[in-house]
Specification:
This protein is an alpha+beta fold. It is built from four helices and 21 strands. The protein has a 19-stranded mixed sheet that branches. A two-stranded antiparallel ribbon has the order 14-21.
Length: 325
């Protein structure tokens, strides 16, 4: 009898331990972030969200679904200029009615909506402290919040609200070192589990023959210093994730475009021939985005990203033309 009691007690203890492990995994903020990264690209959903940056705001509708392993997405701005963006696999088409322009580009490095989620968790904890925040209700869903605090002055603080069931990111915010809100996005309505249907991503704007269609050509630029450029002030924890030569119009000169990321924040570097711009060492800020422009000889270097001004300035000031031997 005593042996049976011991076995039963041991079995109950084992079950309790397993439950504790499962609960720990579900509440682990890194595991929840990983779940959200997969959910936004694998789930079929449609909803309306509000994006705020600085004093401006914009309402948009997004539809996303996966069919035969291929992602389809339609983004429609509902106020202001009626812009639309359609993604089919790697091809992105942007419709701008104000200028009667269509841009078509193939991008393999474009992450799924929303771009505020981390692209990688590999080294994230080296540069951010990650902790669970308070739960809350967003767009009718019960969410768990995750707080990421930067460990240096080259990054912002981030907070994510993730649906406990589906893993969908429903709300996000970016704050500066003084904890002042710089940028946010939040769903006001969302439906998960929609059926794949090409009609859902059909463009609503009426285009005509007089619209200008530009096929943006981009090709991998190979090494970071290709073209004679060197980067002496790479930000701690950032690495190059993309590099390409871009040509927006057939007759326009090529420009270099590099992207550096720490897995969460991203910084773009654009290098092109200077067309008479004299605004040297100029900083521009919009919400969480900072841009810094330098004139280097006959070229213009523009560095911009969702990082503090000190970060874009540091990176830009270290970009130089390689000296000839």
């Amino acid at each position: 009898m005593r042996g049976q009691l011991v076995r039963v007690t041991a079995a109950l203890a084992l079950q309790l331990a397993c439950c504790n492990v499962l609960l720990a995994r579900e509440s682990d903020p890194v595991q929840l972030l990983s779940k959200a990264m997969q959910a936004t690209s694998r789930l079929n959903y449609s909803g309306v969200f509000i994006y705020r940056h600085g004093s401006a705001s914009e309402t948009s509708r997004i539809t996303h679904y996966v069919d035969a392993g291929k992602e389809y997405e339609h983004l429609e701005v509902l106020d202001g200029s009626p812009r639309e963006v359609v993604r089919e696999g790697e091809e992105i088409t942007c419709y701008l009615p104000d200028t009667r322009t269509v841009f078509i580009e193939k991008r393999s490095d474009r992450g799924s909506f929303p771009a505020v989620l981390p692209a990688s968790l590999a080294t994230l904890e080296e540069h951010y402290s990650i902790a669970s925040g308070p739960p809350s209700r967003v767009a009718g869903f019960e969410t768990q919040s995750i707080i990421l605090e930067p460990r240096d002055e080259f990054r912002y603080a981030h907070q994510f609200w993730i649906d406990k069931n589906s893993g969908m990111l429903l709300k996000a915010s970016v704050s500066d070192g003084r904890h002042e809100l710089l940028e946010s996005f939040a769903f006001t309505e969302l439906k998960v589990g929609i059926a794949p249907d090409p009609a859902r991503i059909r463009v609503k704007l009426k285009t005509a023959e007089d619209w200008h269609v530009h096929h943006v050509a981009a090709r991998d630029s190979g090494r970071v210093d290709e073209g004679g450029w060197v980067f002496r002030n790479i930000l701690p924890g950032f690495r190059r994730t993309a590099g390409m030569r871009r040509q927006v119009k057939a007759n326009s000169p090529e420009s270099l475009h590099f992207v550096f990321s720490d897995g969460l924040s991203a910084v773009s570097v654009f290098i092109e021939q200077n067309a008479g711009n004299k605004a040297d060492k100029q900083v521009v800020n919009i919400g969480s985005i900072n841009a810094y422009r330098r004139i280097v000889g006959a070229y213009q270097v523009l560095v911009m990203g969702d990082v503090p001004a000190a970060a874009v300035q540091r990176l830009a000031d270290g970009i130089e033309l390689r000296r000839k031997q």
